[in-house]
């Protein structure tokens, strides 16, 4: 599904793929486009993040009909605020149509909460950079990562966290590893897709399902107990919460940030 250095993907038709064909982590689904939803199928957004020739930070008619909405309009930071803040920190700016961490400002999050959803976005990090996408976050602790699971954003080739698959790009940070060789290099756009439905969570990166787990399962409980998250009672236990983007001190840009609430 490689669409070149800009991270774009060509798109010609709309169709669905049976769920049983997508259940293996690491399985690459080669598709021209997936924009429709049907019973017994899993909706992908092969068109949702960057249709060939389509404007960035915009919804196609098919996406609108499927219930997608933009979380970032490509021009303003409307709909976002700083963690435990009422306003947007100045360290996050809109640069060339991307929501960009340009200087210190802290983590940011959506103003709205989400329970069950499908999130799609693209990110591009500076060489050696680190960031992350949080979900079901709350403001119960002094840092967003003490409540929210994180899909890691990373330059695997340079950053020290890339030496462990538990903290590499696409991982459920510190708990569930992501395979090597899926993330794009620093300076190129990588496509993330996160699906959260009840306790079931999936991380997709560039069309590959890299992580799948169940919140609250015995396996998950054991991993949390053995991790740095163990002392934090809210970690991974919120039934709904905010979507967050991490300021880890490095330049990172996000675009085509969109979400679809799941029934």
Question: What can you tell me about this protein's structure?
Answer:
There is one protein chain. With 263 residues, the protein is mainly beta. The protein has one domain: Exo-inulinase, domain 1 (Jelly Rolls, Sandwich). The protein is built from two helices and 15 strands. It has helices at 61-65, 218-225, and strands at 17-18, 41-42, 68-70, 80-82, 92-95, 98-101, 108-114, 117-125, 130-137, 150-154, 190-197, 200-205, 208-214, 241-245, 252-261. Strands 3, 5, 6, 8, 11, 12, 13 and 15 form an eight-stranded antiparallel sheet that branches. It has a five-stranded antiparallel sheet with strand order 4-7-14-9-10, with no helix packed on it.
Distance between the termini: 29 Å
What is the CATH class?
Mainly Beta
Tally of contiguous helical segments: 2
Percent of residues in beta strands? Answer: 25-35%
- Choose one word for the global shape: globular
* The number of domains: 1
Low-confidence stretches: 1-53
Per-chain topology:
Layout (H helix, E strand, L loop, with lengths): L16 E2 L22 E2 L18 H5 L2 E3 L9 E3 L9 E4 L2 E4 L6 E7 L2 E9 L4 E8 L12 E5 L35 E8 L2 E6 L2 E7 L3 H8 L15 E5 L6 E10 L2
Antiparallel strand pairs: 1-2, 3-15, 4-7, 5-6, 6-15, 7-14, 8-11, 8-15, 9-10, 9-14, 11-12, 12-13
């Amino acid at each position: 599904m490689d669409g070149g250095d800009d991270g774009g993907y060509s798109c010609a038709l709309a169709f669905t793929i049976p769920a049983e064909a997508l259940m293996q982590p690491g399985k690459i689904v080669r598709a021209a486009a997936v924009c429709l939803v049907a019973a017994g199928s899993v909706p992908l957004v092969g068109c949702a993040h960057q249709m060939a020739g389509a404007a960035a930070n915009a919804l196609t008619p098919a996406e609108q009909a499927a219930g997608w909405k933009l979380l970032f309009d490509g021009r303003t930071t409307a709909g976002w605020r700083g963690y435990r803040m009422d306003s947007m920190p100045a360290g996050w700016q809109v640069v060339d149509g991307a929501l960009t961490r340009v200087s210190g400002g802290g983590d940011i999050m959506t103003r709205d909460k989400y329970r069950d959803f499908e999130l799609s976005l693209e990110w591009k990090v500076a060489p050696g950079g680190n960031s992350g996408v949080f979900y079901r976050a709350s403001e119960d602790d002094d840092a967003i990562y003490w409540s929210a699971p994180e899909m890691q954003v990373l330059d695997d080739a340079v950053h020290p966290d890339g030496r462990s698959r538990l903290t590499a790009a696409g991982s459920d940070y510190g708990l569930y590893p992501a395979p090597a060789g899926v993330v794009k290099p620093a300076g190129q756009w990588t496509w993330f897709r996160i699906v959260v439905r009840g306790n079931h969570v999936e991380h997709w990166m560039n069309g590959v399902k890299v992580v799948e787990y169940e919140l609250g399962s015995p396996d998950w409980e054991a991993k949390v107990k053995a991790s740095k998250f163990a002392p934090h009672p809210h970690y991974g236990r919120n039934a709904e919460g905010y979507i967050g983007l991490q300021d880890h001190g490095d330049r990172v840009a996000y675009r085509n940030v969109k979400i679809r609430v799941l029934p």
